[in-house]
Amino acid sequence: MSPDMLFNLLSKGLLQTLHMVAVAGIVGSIIGVPMGVFLATSGKGELFPAPMTNRILGLVVNAARSTPFIILVVAIIPFTRLVAGTSIGTNAAIVPLTVATVPFIARLVEAAIREVDKGLIEAARAMGATPLQIVTKVLLAEAKPGITLALTLTLVSLIGYSAMVGAVGGGGLGDLGIRYGYQRFMPDVMLVVVLVLIVLVQLVQSAGDRLARGFDKRTRKN
């Protein structure tokens, strides 16, 4: 394969991967972050007590998280066709990526919020803050570094998942690696794809870590 052809294929695959990761990450965050907040605040005796709903939602989230991604992709093909009009291609791949992302984000956000000092919540209650004010002014503000790291981990995982959907015609770098690196026995193409994915993950992780440190009050004090 000529360098020009390889460059064109890599450019196209990289753009498709970035498109899938960006859309799935944004949509997944829009749904997953509020879901995580609800899971962290809706237990018995918490800000928005709804223990039965909390338990049911927790079971659904656990079931979705425990399903291997490649199996999830195949299992929801009818839903993918309903949403995207097809089960093949980049736009179709966004559907299972988003479905896998939502419960992942929800649990990470829940964990980040539960790490907030309970004394801050009690202090806010004593000052007359409403539950919604406590969530927005205390919990989310204090958990911002943890949530940032959670979203960073999600994007890194999405990059890996986006490579996996290449096995089912999802496009992106994974599809390039499988079609040329594996099926056509071009190990140099596979090597380049792996290197690009590694660099992409490193860039995302570094940016997320730097952003989280900026949100961390302890780091700013030092």
UniProtKB/TrEMBL annotation:
Pfam family, one: BPD_transp_1
Residue ranges occupied by any ABC transmembrane type-1 domain in the UniProt entry: 14-205
Membrane topology of the entry: Multi-pass membrane protein
Coiled coil stretches, renumbered: none
Compartments reported by the entry: Cell membrane
InterPro entries: AA_ABC_Transporter_Permease (IPR051322), MetI-like (IPR000515), MetI-like_sf (IPR035906)
Source species, domain of life: Bacteria
Key words, A-Z: Cell membrane, Membrane, Transmembrane, Transmembrane helix, Transport
Transmembrane region(s): 20-40, 56-77, 83-106, 147-169, 189-208
Stored PANTHER family: ABC TRANSPORTER PERMEASE, D-METHIONINE TRANSPORT SYSTEM PERMEASE PROTEIN METI-RELATED
Similarity comment text for this entry: Belongs to the binding-protein-dependent transport system permease family.
Name used for this protein in its record: DL-methionine transporter permease subunit
Organism lineage: Bacteria, Pseudomonadati, Pseudomonadota, Alphaproteobacteria, Hyphomicrobiales
